[in-house]
Amino acid sequence: MLRLAPLTVCLVLALASSACAQTYKTPRTALGQPDLQGLWDNDSMTRLQRPKAFKALVATPDEVAAFEGKGFARFDKVIAPVSPDEPPPPPDGVTDDDRFERPQGLARVRGEARSSQIVDPADGRLPYTPAAKAAADKALADEEVYDHPEARPFDERCLLGGGGGVAAPIINRHHILIVQTAEHVVLFGEQNHEARIVRMMDRKPLPAAMAPWMGDSVGRWDGDTLVVETTGLSPNDRWRWNSGDWIMLTTRAKIVERFRRIAPDEILYTFEVDDPGAYTQVWRGEHPMRATSVPIFEYACHEGNYALTNILAGGRVKDREAAATPAAAR
User: Any alpha helices (H) in the chain, and if so which ranges?
Assistant: First the structure.
């Protein structure tokens, strides 16, 4: 039987104690709160819903290589230099990308490459009711309706970027500034310069007649975790666009978000959505947020640009083309 000398036992215990001591401890603000402040980036190729290319939540090495390779290749093609001597591409051959830097790969949570932000249901898909699924499909089709300004999505009209209640990563809204005071936590999103103010002290629900665009968010500390509960969403703010997915939220929705700093440069962001008006069950997601030194720049949306005017003008062109086309050829 192997016997360890007392000194060896002490060394083993000391090493174990040292390892436990190295467990990450969230720093504190001057007010004694867990410190989540700073600029955070939640960019990744991991989408809200699981693409068919993956079989499970945790992607295999082969799946990672194939999916990331395709994404990197697309980005490299989009930003490739264009020769003025080449003919213009066909109308359906124009692509765009909101990125200025090479995209991150799939998100890693606890060292696992994630195929979707949704972790429950197990299939990584939104558990829509049949009626809500039909509404989501219609909303996608309505993207092609150009009858009047109010028919266009509110993010396109620069009213909101769609960040109320769920801070799920979106390609051109992946920078978030967190600021803490004694009574509030502010989550400032880059797109359409959204500032979601979370009430930490006065947690009384707003009057029923008040329905802010981004809902009523109240927060509390659960140990080192910031817990934010959002209710009272505006009936006009039913949709959030997320990389090809429509997230439907009704006025009955209750959203619980959790922000926990798990490393000096990482926050684990988790959320759950309870909305019986749109889903058959509560669904949950999670995604990392990484510290970044890249500043948030001004998001000048319609200030000085004519996008919406041109979008509606294009709709009128389509109307004239349709009117000029014989009914038999439509």
Answer: 6-21, 61-78, 130-141, 307-324
Q: What is the pLDDT of residue 22?
A: 55
| Number of residues in the chain | 330
β pairing state of 254-263 and 245-248:
unpaired
Instruction: Name the residue type at position 42.
Output: N
In contact, 269 and 287? CB cutoff 8 Å: yes
Decide if 224 contacts 260 (C-beta within 8 A): yes
Which residue in 238, 84, 93 sits closest to 162, CA to CA? Answer: 238
User: Whole-structure pTM over 0.85, yes or no?
Assistant: no
Give me the pLDDT at residue 243, please: 60
Please spell the DSSP secondary structure of 198-236, one letter per residue.
EESS--PPPPTT---TT-EEEEEEETTEEEEEEE---TT
Mean confidence (pLDDT) of the chain: 82
Q: How far is CA 41 from the centre of its chain?
A: 10
List CB contacts of 53: < 8 A, sequence separation 6 or more. 63, 66, 67, 115
Average pLDDT over residues 93-114: 78
pLDDT mean over 118-139? 92
Amino acid type, 242: N
> Residue 107: how many CB atoms within 10 A of its CB?
24
Q: What is the pLDDT of residues 291-303, one digit of tens each?
A: 999 888 887 777 6
SS3 55: coil
Within 13 A of 179's CA, how many CA atoms are on the CB side? Answer: 7
Using alpha carbons, select from 40, 257, 44, 298 the residue that is nearest to residue 170: 44
Is the CB of residue 304 less than 8 Å from the CB of residue 279?
A: no
> How far is 257 from 149, CA to CA, in rounded Å?
33
